[in-house]
């Protein structure tokens, strides 16, 4: 697997003007397809609440408003906390120097620096990718498990819609049994994730 994500998030061009960055969360949620911009985890699998991250941290912003939509990222709490105020440059216009820094996850350039292997693990492709990989602590997270679950979940939904069109009672019964096992597995992973 070469692409880090199946769909590159794209921030909308026109947004209302809000007083706080958190008011943009529903719009960002849509624009990022209910996935963390950095690790790609889908919110369905994580009860940990998703947040609005400032790509360039607020403490580094000089001439940019903290509510500038083009600087906001839909992020899981873990990625947001790992990145937090980390910005390796004094210049907010400089995102990376080909060795250290960050790449906006709402750009296709992000996939030039990060990829997934055949097992769904996040793998850095460049020096900047290695820098981000370490900052986000991807080596100590279950991002591959969550990725696999999102792939399986999508396939189950596709099978579900096909079975609704057919009257295959035995196949439907077996599918429902597998679906219950899958949901039980997801619940146990969520419970384990929350206890960490």
Terminal-residue CA separation? 29 Å
Query: How much strand content do the residues show?
Result: 5-15%
Number of helices: 6
Radius of gyration: 19 Å
| Structural classification | mainly alpha
Tell how many strands the DSSP assignment holds.
Answer: 4
Ranges with pLDDT <50 over ≥5 residues?
A: none
Which range best describes the helical content: under 10%, 10-25%, 25-40%, 40-55%, 55-70% or over 70%? 25-40%
* Arrangement of strands in the largest sheet: 1-2
Q: Kindly state the mean pLDDT as a whole number? A: 85
* Sheet with most strands: 2 strands, antiparallel
Compressed to H and E, one letter per element, the order equals: HEEHHEEHHH
What coarse outline follows from CA principal-axis ratios? elongated
């Amino acid at each position: 697997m070469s692409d880090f994500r199946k769909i590159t998030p794209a921030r909308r061009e026109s947004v209302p003007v809000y007083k706080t960055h958190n008011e943009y969360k529903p719009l960002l949620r849509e624009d990022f397809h209910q996935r963390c911009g950095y690790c790609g985890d889908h919110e369905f699998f994580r009860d940990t609440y998703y947040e609005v991250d400032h790509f360039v941290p607020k403490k580094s912003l000089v001439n940019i408003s903290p509510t500038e939509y083009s600087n906001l990222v839909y992020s899981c709490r873990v990625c947001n906390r790992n990145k937090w105020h980390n910005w390796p440059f004094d210049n907010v216009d400089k995102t990376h120097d080909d060795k250290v820094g960050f790449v906006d996850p709402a750009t296709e350039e992000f996939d030039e620096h990060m990829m997934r292997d055949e097992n769904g693990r996040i793998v850095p492709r460049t020096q900047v990718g290695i820098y981000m990989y370490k900052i986000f602590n991807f080596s100590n997270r279950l991002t591959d498990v969550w990725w696999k679950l999102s792939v399986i979940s999508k396939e189950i939904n596709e099978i579900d819609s096909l079975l609704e069109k057919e009257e295959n009672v035995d196949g439907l019964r077996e599918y429902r049994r597998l679906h219950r096992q899958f949901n039980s597995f997801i619940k146990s992973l969520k419970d384990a994730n929350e206890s960490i």
